Amino acid sequence: MTETVSGSVGRGGKRAPKGLKTKRIHTTPGVHPYDQVRWERRDVVMTNWRDGSINFEQRGVEFPDFWSVNAANIVTTKYFRGAVGTPQRETSLRQLVDRVVGAYTRTGRENGYFASEEDAEIFDHELKHALIHQIFSFNSPVWFNVGTASPQQVSACFILAVDDQMESILEWYKEEGVIFKGGSGSGVNLSRIRSSKELLSSGGTASGPVSFMRGADASAGTIKSGGATRRAAKMVVLDVDHPDIEEFIETKAREEDKVRALRDAGFDMDLGGKDIVSVQYQNANNSVRVSDEFMHAVEAGESFGLRARLSGEVIEQVDAKTLFRKMAQAAWECADPGIQYDDTINDWHTCPETGRITASNPCSEYVHLDNSSCNLASINLLKFLREDDSFDVEGFVKLTELIITAMDISITFADFPTQKIAETTRAYRQLGIGYANLGALLMATGHAYDSDGGRAAAAAITSLMTGVSYRRSAELAAIVGPYDGYARNAEPHKRVMRKHAAANDDLRAVDALDRPILAEATKQWQECLRLGDKNGYRNAQASLLAPTGTIGLMMDCDTTGIEPDLALVKFKKLVGGGSMQIVNQTIPRALKQLGYQSEQVEAIVHYIAEHGHVMDAPGLKHEHYEVFDCAMGERAIAPMGHVRMMAATQPFLSGAISKTVNLPESATIEDIEQVYLEGWKLGLKALAVYRDNCKVGQPLSIAKKTDEKTEAKAAEPVVQVVEVPRPKRRRLPNQRPSTTTRFTVGGAKGYMTASSYPDDGLGEVFLKMSKQGSTLAGVMDAFSVAISVGLQHGVPLETFVSKFVNMRFEPAGMTDDPDVRMAASVVDYIFRRLALDHLPYGERAALGVFSAAERAAQQRGEDPGAPQEVIIDTAALAQSAPIEEKPEERPAVTAAPETHAPSRQNGAAHALESHQGRTADAPLCLTCGTKMRPAGSCYVCEGCGSTSGCS
Q1: 198 vs 164, 170, 192, 316, 499, CA distance in Å?
Q2: Whether 333 is catalytic
Q3: pLDDT tens figures, 895-948
Q4: Which single residue of 448, 496, 691, 904 could bond 930 by disulfide (Cβ 3.0 to 4.6 Å)?
Q5: pTM of the full structure
Q6: 161-347 CATH choice from 3.30.1330.10, 3.40.50.300, 1.10.1040.10, 3.20.70.20
Q7: 662 has catalytic annotation
Q8: 363 is catalytic
């Protein structure tokens, strides 16, 4: 890191600015930062999640020995440039960091950022030290593009603009396509487009913005399926006073209904299914931009006017409360739309003289001018927690200075996808510094996420970060000048700075953790205001809180962005391949900080490893339970706990916060209304909600629980003993017909042998997976015996099918069976296959199990119950065939476990599932098939680092 002070600025043009003076903090003169760490060579091998084949292999890559296997795998596969196997391919983290930092240092020298060559060298060394020690990271486009022959794209977030003209709408399609092609996301507000209730100049009726959304959605889907490494991330915003707002609100909810109806009708709506493309609007996040006027009308139960786009006159009156409830109901059904608070956003706008803020990026954290972009960088907060559990305030200040300097330099050399975006970004120089690992920091210091102490620490850290950022921006303005648009926006910009400082003055320290942070933040804001009045500011925006998906994994962060921990148990990848389950390392530290002795800590950690939660842990006080609350699980943080944390940090951010408020499946529409209302009252800029399982109906699991409770309650008063005839076992003859099926579920291979009575159906099932003697092999043997004994005692096969079909656990996903393309688990696949092989159509239809031919017949309007030709794969008829094991030629670091244990099992999502006995409601990664986990309002894949939004 660097300690920096600005040089004096010449007056009246008599003297040139001196540039920044830098001071070493972590590096030593004459010693390169690379020489201060121990490096080691590793092998990175990525396997195909469908069949276990190798789809990426690079051996002998070089990383510091303290980097985790997962972090090294992700950097190697995503950020190293050059074709694998060629001399141009990067093979070391040193090369990657040299490529990126070299461009920053070189541009800083050329543009007068540094006072001397020595200062440039110190900047270079401190930046390299911070990056290789995982203290912070730039966003993914920097690692992709800087220092390569490609355009020097550094921004991850874009906002576009669309006018009420066909040329502008078509240009929007084109601009989005260019951005998606580069792996970034964009947002747009469609409220300028005339509604379907207004007339065109020709006399016809306008199509309305929702109709044009179809074309943009199809474009995004096409680009995604044409080879992008992640889905096209985009945001569509519509103002609440637009006449088509109701249609916009219900758009995605109707499509979710279509998915269910088509699936029930037998259409192929699985991931990658041929019929899923008929579902529209799935490539965008939707948000309604609400005004204070509308929210007041909701509170008062008054009517609200929808206005024509061209004239601004009210063309329809609606009940505000009814419209607000429709928003909440749609979000309850499918998690869309989110909400953005227009007046709050624009009240904190530094550049209102240039134009209003109308939209955001896909994850809602970047909110600024149309046709602009923002590059991001995030700080690893846990790196500043000292051994005595105090926060390294001085180190945090110096790192923030370093990052802001580097980020501003990047805008100087950056390339942009369109000329309009280039002009706006260079004129306003928007930056997005943020942080990750807040949840881990709070837990490690014994602070509950949903507590006054937790919120006070988060608020103080955020205030300090933004105060230092704008203070450094004012120093840069003295050296290389304020941003081009500052002169016309000087007064509103300084007003917003005073609002930030006033919010900081309103903070009150709670304990020893936040007290010194808040004291330093107050000093920084005072200096920020002083220097800003004198020099102006180099950047129109400085801070926001991004989801930090891929870069969070790169920094080995336990938690992303502002999020709490997802689960108390995680999976750690091992250097020799495979993985092990571990309790989060912040938990022992938290227990010690709370005063527990080493023996107590050991017992509690052992309990957590076994149960996945802290309830009834031996010796743990009930008042300490809240410290270990997570986003999901036995003690999930309440929805308002998420909202209150966002509200604590929002006054100290230039932009907004990428975060989804999680609600349980039992949450009501009224609960979502309350969250949206409180978000407005507490001063948030944007908010999204997600009700667990809202996109996947699970009525059977709920009914099952209800039935069990009802049966148990009804059975309590019964005292009469009834003797029931015991079933007799009917053994199979020594020789019986059997079929062996080789299958693959989510990359896990197995064999199933099903034996039948010569005259009367299935009587025995044997399953073989994994190595003989392994836990999995033993469990499958025991399961096979239990099912076989049940069948031989007269339990109908359809009973087993009804109980085990749709059971969810890992491994899950794609199969190699054309009749069962997707399986929720191995057990789900097994009993679907058994039903197809041994049950008549009528019984299977009642259970929702159809073959591919039957589904096709349904679509053609034919009788699906007609006899179907059975085709047997004779190559698979090798009874009790062994599982093939590939010999290891040399130790290798794999991004996934062996074939029989697919990569999806490695991560927080799987840890949560294994302890809750349920499937975390997250999509599969389109790149590697791993179960993703939430990161802000997006998702991140722990297997390969891909994200569904900002990186």
Answers
A1: 12, 20, 12, 11, 41
A2: no
A3: 434 333 344 445 666 666 665 555 556 666 666 666 777 887 778 877 777 777
A4: 904
A5: 0.78
A6: 3.20.70.20
A7: no
A8: yes
